[in-house]
Every structure is written in C-alpha cells, then in structure tokens.
Amino acid sequence: MQRVDTDIHRSAVVADTHNDLLMLVVRRSAAQCGKYFRERWLPQLRAGGVDIQVLPIFIDEQFRPEGALRQTLRMIESAHRLAEANPDAVGLCRTGVEVDEVLSSGRIALVLALEGCPQIDDDVELLRLLGRLGIRVVSFTHFGRSALADGSSEDATGGRLTSAGVEALSVLEEDGLILDVSHLGQAGVDHVLEIATRPVLATHSSARALRDHHRNLTDDQIKGIAATEGVVCVNFYAGFVADHDATVGSVVDHIEHVAWVAGIEHVGLGPDFIKELVGELHPGDEPLISEDVGLDERLAIPGLEGPAGLPLVTHEMLVRGMSEQDVRAVLGGNVLRLFRADLGRPGVRGRG
Q1: Which secondary structure element, helix H or strand E, spans residue 137, and what is its range?
Q2: Is residue 290 within 8 Å of 282, Cβ to Cβ?
Q3: In this predicted model, what pLDDT tens digit does every residue of 11-58 receive, in sequence order?
Q4: Calpha distance 99→110 (Å, rounded)
C-alpha cells in the first residue's frame, strides 16, 4: 500500500457503524470482558484506524422471546465494563459532544445500538429506559417480523410500520435516538421516509441497483435517506455486495453508486464483519441463518475479514481518483457530522 494511502487513512476519522463484537464480549465473564476486548478487539480496531465504533446489541434466537430483555441488559453491562476496564483506549458516548471529547483524547468513541427490538415487543416506552442506559441507535427488526415492523425477508407481505412502530419512531425522535433502517422491509423503509422528521441512518446496507438482494436499498430509498440528512453506510458482507467473487473493488462500487445517487455527503461504512463471530458461535458446518433470508457461506471478502482491512477500502477509493476530501467524508466524516448534530439531542431538529 502506498504511503499516501496510509497517511490519509490514519489521519481521517474512521467510523464503523456495525460490528457485532459485543456478542462475543458478553460470552466472557464480567471480570474478563475488559481484558478480552483489549487483547482481541482493540488491536484490530487500531490496525483498521477505527475512531468511532457503533456496537449493535443483537439478541440471538436462544434468548428470544423470554430472555431478550435480560440478554440486552447483559450486553449493555458488558459494554460498560469493557469501557471502564479500558479508559485509556475507548469511551462510551451518548452525545455528539461526548464523541468529540473522546476523539480529541485519541480514544475510540463507542456508541450503543439495538439491532432489532425483541426486548421491547410492543412496549414502546421501554425504548426510553434503554435510552437512559446509553442506547443511541435503534433498528426495529431483523430479517423477520417484529411487533414494530417487518424485516426485509418478509417483503412479500408489503408490511409497513405497525402502529407500535410509528409510536416507537416518535419516541426515538423525541429522545434523540437515531433510527436505523437497515433490515427493515422495503415497505417499512418507505413508510419511515414518509413520516420521519429527523435524520435516519442505514448502518449496514448496500445498493440494490448493483446487487438485487432484499437486504439492500433501492435508489429511491437512498435518495430518501439523504433527504432526511441521513447517511447510508455500505455493508461489506460478500453475499450482499456481489452475486459471486466479491472484492474490495465491489465494496467501492457500492460506495460510488450511493454517492452518485445521493451525494458524497451521505455515504459511510457499515462493514458488518461477522467471520470471527460465526467462527465462535457457529463452529463447523452449523448454518448461521436459514437459506430463506438469502445468506450463504461467503461471509467475508478477501482482505476484509475484520477491521484491520479497512485501509484497503481507502486505497481503492484513492486509486479510483476520489479526492482526499471525499474519501475522508466516506470513511467517517459524514457519520461524525450526523452524530454531532443529532446523537442524544432531544427533538430539536425536525424537517420542514
């Protein structure tokens, strides 16, 4: 890699809006989770130059439905423990001001998110409680149906947000939590874009125009997210990026397409690195998720198996002639702008 690539990457703010590493941290004892994070994940994040890391809380099938809220609380506590055990390296952030403070100290800003809402079902007021505990980004569903919305594998139903989902969006907007539309079904995304009054985020979604998969966003949806002042963070999962033989170049194809559709100021990175997660949680030949959601064995693009590969994306963007300013915006500048404006800030930024 050329020296100029390294310099630009290292000096840029790099934001990863989706890494499920908390699912592995929570498997360690309370006394060990900080040490595990420091030894296993911190070197990877530093190697990739990550400055902002969104940590989704995903509740595995074994905990649903009865144990979903309990496991959520365990994962929130594990995040607090890893941060308290590594105060020199990371800081949990609830506001854009806190993100800036952590970044200015040379540490990694951690932001907690919910991936799906099995822990609340239709008890929407629980979102306020989870916000008090530090949650700042929320998606309403995963692949299937929830009490708030249908996931993308249910696209055939044409399901929009439920009445509880509409109420939940209102709660998020009032309390300064950011809605994540990744995993929402197509009609659900369209519904959100009709009624949202604050910026929305797609934490890990790519372009359907390049890879016709239900987990990806249409051009109209990408434009709609941009119209809210939001950001589309491109997913690196191989099966969502290309039909076959996905490469780093395939990821940058999606970045360029989103930029072409929505403007460079609305593109970010949502890698969704899961190879290590799958290796520990689903060893051997045990499938990760059933085939009906369109996942396969292509978990990682060569070179992008984990955070350490992120400089390869910077290199590819520069090789293609993207300006340094645009590269910095995609790497994290756009997400940082959104977080500064809206993270943890009660309803003060309605559109219109």
Answers
A1: strand 135-139
A2: no
A3: 999 999 999 999 999 999 999 999 999 999 999 999 999 999 999 999
A4: 8
Domains annotated for the chain, with CATH where assigned, are 3-342 (3.20.20.140)
| Cross-strand partners of 207 | 217
CA 96 from chain center: how many Å?
Answer: 17
Amino acid at 325: Q
pTM above 0.90, yes or no: yes
DSSP assignment of 189-246 equals: HHHHHHH--S--EESS--BTTTS--TTSBPHHHHHHHHHTT-EEEEP--HHHH-SSS-
Q: For residue range 196-240, what is the model confidence (pLDDT) as tens digits?
A: 999 999 999 999 999 999 999 999 999 999 999 999 999 999 999
Q: Would you list the DSSP string of 90-130?
A: EEE-SSHHHHHHHHHTTPEEEEEEEES-TTTTT-TTHHHHH
* Sign of the alpha-carbon torsion through 310, 305, 38, 203: positive
Separate counts of helices (H) and strands (E) for the chain:
16, 9
Residue among 207, 348, 209 nearest 266 (CA): 207
